[in-house]
C-alpha cells in the first residue's frame, strides 16, 4: 500500500510545488512507482510535469466533488514511474461547493482509496492555505512535509500550521505524522539563512531533514520547460538535493531503493 505524503504550508513562496514535483520525480528516478496529486487550483504541479492544465478534462476536482474515478483521471507523464492526478482552475470553487456535503473533509481520502495500492508513494501538492482542500489532503495522508524557506519570516505561521495538524490528528486522522520540516532556498553565504537554520533546528530538532534545498537556478528554470529539475539537469545542485531528500525519506521509512 502506497505511502501518502502531503507537502503543506499555508505560507506562499516556500517551495511547496517545487518540492512536490522534484521529490516525486526523484522517487520515480529511484524506480518507485509514484503519483503526484495536484491539489492546488493554480495547477503548477500539473504544468510542471509537462501536462497543459487547459487540456485536463477530469481532475482532482471532479474526483472530490462529482465522485469521478481517480484511476480514470490519472495521466502518465513523460517520466518513467511517475503519474499525475491533475488539477485545474475549477478547484477554486470546490471549497464552496463542498460546504454542505457530508464527510466533506474525507473526499480526497475516498478518491485515493482505489489507486493507493498501485503506487509506492503518493505526493500531494497543497495550495497555500489552510482551507478545506488542504484539510482534505492532510486527512488523506500518512504524513506531511513542511517546507520552510531560509528567510526572515520563516517561522511565521508555522505554529498555526502545526496547530491545524494537531486538530486533524485529533478529529480526522489520528495516523497523521510529520514526516519532516524541509529547509528550502538555502544560501550558505548568507548569515540570515544560517541563523534561520539554527533557529528551526533548535525549535524542532529531529523533525528537521538533514537535506537542505539550496537556491538554484535550475530549480527555478525547469517548470518553464515542463519538467522536473532531475530531467532538466540531473547534475545541478537542486536535482542532487531532492534526490538526497528522497533517499533520506526512504531511510526514515526503512524502505530500500532498487
Q: Give the N-terminus to C-terminus distance in angstroms.
A: 17 Å
Helix share, percent: 25-40%
Low-confidence stretches: none
SS element count, helices: 12
Taken in chain order, the helices and strands follow as EHEHHHEEHHEHEHEHHHH
Side by side, the strands of the main sheet go 3-4-2-5-1-6-7
User: Can you summarize the main beta sheet?
Assistant: 7 strands, mixed
Structural class by helix and strand composition = alpha/beta
Shape: globular
Overall number of strands: 7
Report strand %: 5-15%
**Averaged pLDDT, please?**
90
Kindly provide the radius of gyration, computed on alpha-carbon positions and rounded to a whole number of angstroms. 17 Å
What does this structure look like?
The protein is 39% helix and 15% strand. It has 258 residues and is of the alpha/beta class. Strand 3 (75-76) and strand 4 form a beta hairpin. The radius of gyration is 17 Å and the shape is globular.
